[in-house]
Design a protein that fits this description.
Blueprint (H helix, E strand, L loop, with lengths): L2 H9 L21 H19 L15 H5 L5 H37 L5 H4 L9 H37 L7 H41 L7 H36 L6 H40 L9
């Protein structure tokens, strides 16, 4: 026997297969591959649940329930209370806007009709008719309040219909209009504080100017109407300010008490507060700058050119 040949055959290395191997070859069996995908799916599922991506998605074809069916939908008491408060708030905004719009338009109309008709037909003394500039500004703001109230009320009606449809379909989730209202409730006290502060500041300055003009001028013009209007505006602002802060806190507490947590994450709440304060601060100082450079400084220049003291009554 040729042991040398056998030995040499055993020592020859086995030639590997020349078939190219790719990374994504389906023939390769990785014993850890299935477990990796399983863990990845599990982690993605948990992440989706934490982020709220597994919320029920509205289909494009939703059942069109009748008005009677929508009225019979059972809404939780806390959510129903929040809806009533939101409707009451929007109704109040619409009513106040309408009343102020009517009053301002009435006085503007009376002011321009006064030269045409006599006092006996107007039955309003001319000294009680305010200047049209103040009434026109009030009319613009009243119109904005009125339109904003109508638009928000329509949005609430549409959102409430969608929420009732979800309840009848057995879908339970936080309604969009409730999240939107909660974000608005976070920003509302900041807006109210800035608006009220501005009204208190400028209203007090205007009332002081009216008193100075009334007591220091020789003609002694009657400005009782303007002073009464400004005092009424300040008193109404204080009342609305206090009531708004109280209702805002009550509504936020009612929503959080029902769900057991704040429906808007704390980071978003912090961002909303920061952004709202920044917007209000920019608007306040821009308005202050406009008043300074467009009204006060040109007025002082005109008085100086007429050889009058820059600051009157001094």
């Amino acid at each position: 026997m040729d042991f040398s040949n056998k030995k040499n055959n055993n020592l020859n290395p086995v030639q590997p297969d020349k078939t190219p191997v790719y990374v994504n070859d389906a023939n390769i069996k990785n014993p850890y591959q299935q477990s990796q995908f399983s863990n990845q799916n599990l982690s993605n599922q948990n992440l989706a649940e934490n982020l709220g991506f597994n919320q029920p998605i509205h289909n494009q074809t939703r059942p069109n329930f009748t008005k009677k069916q929508l009225e019979n939908a059972e809404i939780p008491n806390q959510i129903a209370k929040e809806i009533r408060l939101q409707k009451l708030s929007l109704t109040g905004i619409i009513f106040i806007g309408f009343v102020l719009l009517f009053i301002s338009a009435f006085f503007v109309l009376v002011h321009y009709l006064a030269p045409i008709v006599n006092d006996s037909q107007l039955k309003i003394p001319l000294k009680f008719i305010p200047h049209p500039a103040v009434m026109i500004i009030l009319m613009i703001f009243s119109l904005l309040f009125f339109l904003i109230g109508l638009i928000d009320f329509n949005h609430l009606r549409i959102g409430l219909k969608s929420y009732k449809t979800d309840l009848l379909m057995g879908v339970e989730k936080i309604p969009y209009f409730l999240v939107r209202n909660y974000k608005a409730l976070v920003a509302r006290p900041i807006y109210m504080n800035w608006i009220s502060f501005s009204i208190y500041l400028w209203g007090g300055i205007i009332i002081g100017i009216f008193f100075i003009i009334k007591t220091a001028t020789k003609d002694n013009p009657s400005m009782n109407t303007e002073i009464i209007i400004m005092i009424s505006i300040l008193a109404s602002t204080l009342f609305i300010h206090i009531i708004s802060l109280f209702f805002t806190r009550a509504r936020k507490g009612n929503i959080s008490a029902y769900y057991g947590y704040e429906i808007v994450p704390f980071d978003q709440v912090k961002d909303i507060r920061k952004r709202t304060n920044r917007i209000c601060m920019v608007i306040f100082f821009v308005f202050l700058t406009l008043v300074l450079f467009i009204v006060i400084i040109p007025w002082m220049i005109v008085r100086k050119n007429k050889n009058k003291p820059i600051i009157p009554f001094i």
